[in-house]
Design a protein that fits this description.
8 strands, Rossmann fold
Length: 317
């Protein structure tokens, strides 16, 4: 795939959610489904007949989101399940319950994330952004991979960010014990998401798996991610100053990940983002990886580190 823009066999010109095919009979899992991009994604999947599992940290907010969608989409098939992606025990518990309920799954959308908190450690002692944004999704994907392999047109969609291009993975200080920057470690976590999605594509392909790993980023989208960060400067710059000028609504920002999850013929390893200037907004199109995201040594090191920290091994032969 390299760091260049991926080639796709079909056009995405002005693609919007109205072009999502009938999803009846297919099951989707969306993390962070109760707000922002996750809520917009869940609504459109349900609107087109998909059965959606809302994987949320706060069950009350998840149920409220499901009720809101059900009011807009009569007959929507929605289940709310709790998972704290920063807590690997919670991820395992969630995966075990989902496996018991579903002999097959069709699409996993790794959407949830946290942005720029003060340095905080997860239940297992990992830096919160690396834990919630990357390790939790790495573990969840591995634990559900056999269920996805049994699915119809199965995909793992990992949501990246423009910020991944500013990231650097510091393997010698992954948790920021020596030096911590709220945005620097957010960028690291989003680069880790992107490295993971690309490396997963390579490993699935090598194993002959039917599951495809696809990536997407939303450009600049107004969500709770910027407004909920406790770092006042980040909240002010991204939420109050730049947001009103540049940000698009979640319904628009979700288009690349919806395309990645549903469009016929999307290739494994594809990376979708907005087609506007600077990839800030617009309809989905293929976009470029940062060179670091496709570096083979970085992919290998991150995969081995993630296996060690999560104790999850992928069933890839």
């Amino acid at each position: 795939m390299s760091g260049s823009v991926c080639h796709m066999t079909h056009a995405t010109e002005q693609w919007n959610a109205d072009r999502i095919p009938d999803l009846t009979g297919r099951t989707f899992v969306v993390t962070g489904a109760n707000s922002g991009l996750g809520l917009a994604t869940t609504r459109e999947l349900a609107r087109h007949g998909g059965h959606v599992v809302l994987a949320v940290r706060d069950e009350g907010r998840g149920r409220a989101a499901a009720q809101r969608i059900a009011g807009e989409v009569p007959g929507a098939r929605l289940d709310v399940r709790r998972v704290d992606l920063a807590d690997l025990d919670s991820v395992r518990e969630f995966a075990d319950k989902l496996r018991a309920e579903h002999p097959r799954l069709d699409v996993l959308v790794n959407n949830a994330g946290v942005m720029a908190p003060p340095r905080t450690l997860s239940a297992q002692g990992h830096e919160l952004q690396f834990a919630a944004n990357h390790l939790g999704h790495f573990a969840l994907t591995g634990l559900l991979l056999d269920r996805l392999a049994a699915g119809r047109d199965p995909r793992v969609v990992t949501v990246s960010s423009l910020q991944h291009r500013k990231g650097r993975i510091d393997f010698d200080d992954i948790d920021g014990a020596r030096r911590y920057s709220p945005m620097g470690h957010y960028n690291q976590a989003k680069l880790a998401n992107t490295v993971f999605g690309h490396e997963l594509h390579l490993r699935l392909t090598a194993a002959g798996s039917p599951v495809r790993s696809v990536l997407a980023h939303p450009g600049y989208t107004a969500t709770n991610l910027q407004n909920d960060t406790p770092v006042a400067l980040v909240r002010w710059v991204y939420g109050k100053v730049l947001g009103p000028l540049l940000a698009q609504a979640p319904e628009s920002g979700a288009r690349p990940q919806l395309y990645a999850a549903t469009a016929p013929g999307v290739e494994g390893g594809a990376f979708l983002g907005p087609d506007g200037p600077g990839e800030l907004r617009g309809a989905p199109r293929p976009v470029a990886y940062a060179p670091a995201a496709t570096d083979p040594e970085t992919g290998r090191r991150l995969w081995e580190l993630s296996e060690r920290l999560t104790a999850v091994r992928y069933p890839l032969g």
